[in-house]
């Protein structure tokens, strides 16, 4: 008989990838047999295969006899040097030709170097080193080798009268591929305003693009070579996917990351978020101590992330949600904002923290800026939710409806925007829209109950109680 299906298709492709006389298997097969058979596997990374929509991680069966004392390459090493990305901002090319624009371009590049250095999760080549290429035309791959960087920011300026056009690109050094590009038009009448506008946009855009590029790089890297940084990067997408299965995947990756580096602030912050969400949503696998574990990891992220803005902001958000120590949480996000005010994801978690702590005006300001500075941020729905929640709690229900819908568009599995949408609709006397929001919530987040909201330590307890009563009226289950 003939057998069809994805499994057969994958097996056929893996056979084609195998060396002569060799055996390749998929990750699913490896996971089923790895602890049952005395066989070693070599991780060959992920491969795109024909007629299969997602990359397949391939393992080669090691047929030769295992040397004495050798460890299986199918298992990760407990620790490895953290391989953080390096970035260089090269001097922008002055195609206008005069000294005024030359000075302006140097100032733009210097501002970018200064602001990018605040992100902390990648290293920036110093200004004096990168400016040694000023006036030279060099191949990007050559520059990358000489500077030891994975990514470069390049730019140029053209001038027509008093008007200028600045082009800027983020380039992956090894391939020369443009990961992001934008251009800015303005005049030299107010160079500071134009300079600030360029810096804000570039920082807001480059951060998430770099993170996505690094996630993809880590995903394709053989598992045996992955360090805490790689594992933490890989945890980002499932950590914020807001399903029980994705949450479990993220926690597995973060557990391994923290085994390799227990004080890695970003891993602690992401793990705190995952334990918090499992606690709030009561997903399968939830444990009685999830709240305490999340609180402890949030504290570790804040204590260990003194110069890591995202770890501080995310840790502050979790700490505010699960404890009454809101002053500590606000101090954490204040510190994050001192370091980096142009990262949408940092602004989003700052806004969420301030919502919970009752600072609605500041939450609205920071959430609006998050939506403005980086439309490329994959997690921008968190900023939309923070803005919706702050608007609702400030009595701006019409605006809350619009922002809640944007948050739902960003991630339909995220339960809390449906609550905001239902509450705002009830306030606006739109019972049909409120009922529809509750039905959507039941469809995409069936585990959600009013108890999920009761577990959040909002500063305004009376307002929370009123919200719970309204949601009960539209038949949200207890």
Task: Explain what you see.
It contains 20 helices and 9 strands. The protein has 478 residues and is an alpha/beta fold. Strands 4, 5, 6, 7, 8 and 9 form a 6-stranded mixed sheet that branches. A 3-stranded antiparallel sheet has the order 1-3-2. Strand 2 (40-47) and strand 3 form a beta hairpin. Helix 6 packs across helix 7, helix 15 (380-393) packs antiparallel against helix 16 and helix 16 runs antiparallel to helix 17. The longest helix has 30 residues, at 191-220. The model is unreliable at 1-5 and 64-81 (pLDDT under 50).
Short description:
The protein has 478 residues and is of the alpha/beta class.
Keywords, separated by commas or semicolons:
single chain; Serine Threonine Protein Phosphatase 5, Tetratricopeptide repeat; 478 residues; alpha/beta; three-stranded antiparallel β-sheet; Rossmann fold; 4 domains; 9 strands
**What does the radius of gyration come to?**
25 Å
Under the CATH scheme, the architecture of the largest domain is 3-Layer(aba) Sandwich
Q: How far is the N terminus from the C terminus? A: 53 Å
User: H/E element string?
Assistant: HEHEEEEHEHHEEEHHHHHHHHHHHHHHH
Structural class: alpha/beta
* DSSP summary: helix tally: 20
The level of helicity is 55-70%
What's the CATH first level of the largest domain? Alpha Beta
> What's the CATH H-level homologous superfamily of the largest domain?
ABC-type transport auxiliary lipoprotein component
Averaged pLDDT: 86
Largest sheet: 6 strands, mixed
Beta strand count: 9
Beta-strand content bin: 5-15%
CATH level 3 topology of the largest domain: Rossmann fold
Q: How many independent structural domains? A: 4
Shape: globular
- Can you tell me the residue ranges where pLDDT is under 50 for at least 5 consecutive residues? 1-5, 64-81
């Amino acid at each position: 008989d003939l057998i069809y299906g994805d499994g057969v298709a994958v097996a056929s492709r893996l056979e084609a990838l195998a060396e002569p006389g060799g055996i390749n298997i998929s990750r699913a097969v490896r996971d089923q047999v790895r602890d049952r058979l005395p066989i070693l596997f070599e991780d060959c990374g992920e491969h795109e295969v024909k007629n299969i929509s997602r990359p397949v991680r391939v393992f080669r069966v090691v047929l030769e006899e295992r040397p004495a004392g050798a460890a299986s390459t199918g298992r990760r090493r407990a620790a490895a040097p953290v391989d953080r990305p390096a970035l260089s901002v090269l001097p922008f090319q002055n195609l206008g030709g005069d000294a005024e624009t030359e000075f302006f371009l140097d100032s733009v590049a210097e501002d970018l170097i200064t602001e990018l250095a605040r992100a902390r999760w990648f290293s920036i080549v110093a200004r004096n080193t990168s400016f040694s290429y000023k006036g030279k035309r060099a191949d990007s791959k050559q520059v990358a080798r000489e500077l030891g960087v994975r990514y470069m920011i390049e730019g140029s300026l053209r001038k027509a009268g008093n008007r200028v056009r600045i082009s800027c690109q983020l380039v992956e050094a090894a391939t020369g591929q443009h990961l992001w590009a934008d251009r800015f038009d303005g005049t030299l009448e107010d160079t500071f305003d134009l300079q600030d506008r360029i810096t804000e946009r570039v920082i807001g855009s480059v951060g998430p693009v770099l993170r996505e590029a690094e996630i993809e790089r880590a995903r394709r890297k053989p598992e045996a070579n992955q360090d805490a940084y790689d594992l933490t990067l890989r945890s980002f997408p499932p950590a914020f996917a807001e399903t029980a299965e994705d949450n479990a995947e993220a926690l597995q990756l973060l557990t391994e990351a923290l085994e390799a580096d227990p004080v890695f602030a970003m891993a602690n912050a992401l793990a705190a978020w995952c334990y918090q969400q499992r606690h709030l949503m009561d997903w399968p696998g939830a444990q009685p101590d999830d709240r305490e574990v999340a609180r402890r990891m949030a504290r570790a992220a804040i204590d260990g992330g003194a110069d890591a803005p995202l770890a501080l902001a995310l840790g502050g958000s979790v700490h505010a949600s699960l404890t009454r120590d809101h002053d500590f949480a606000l101090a954490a996000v204040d510190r994050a904002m001192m370091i980096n005010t142009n990262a949408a994801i940092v602004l989003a978690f700052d806004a969420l923290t301030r919502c919970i702590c009752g600072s609605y005006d500041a939450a609205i300001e920071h959430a609006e800026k998050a939506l403005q500075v980086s439309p490329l941020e994959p997690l921008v729905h968190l900023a939309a939710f923070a803005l919706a929640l702050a608007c609702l709690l400030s009595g701006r229900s019409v605006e809350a409806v619009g922002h809640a819908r944007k948050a739902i568009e960003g991630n339909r599995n995220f339960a809390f925007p449906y609550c905001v949408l239902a509450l705002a609709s009830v306030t606006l006397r739109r019972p049909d829209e409120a009922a529809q929001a509750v039905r959507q919530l039941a469809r995409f987040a069936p585990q959600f109950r009013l108890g999920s909201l009761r577990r959040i330590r909002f500063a305004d307890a009376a307002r929370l109680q009123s919200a719970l009563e309204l949601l009960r009226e539209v038949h949200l289950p207890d």
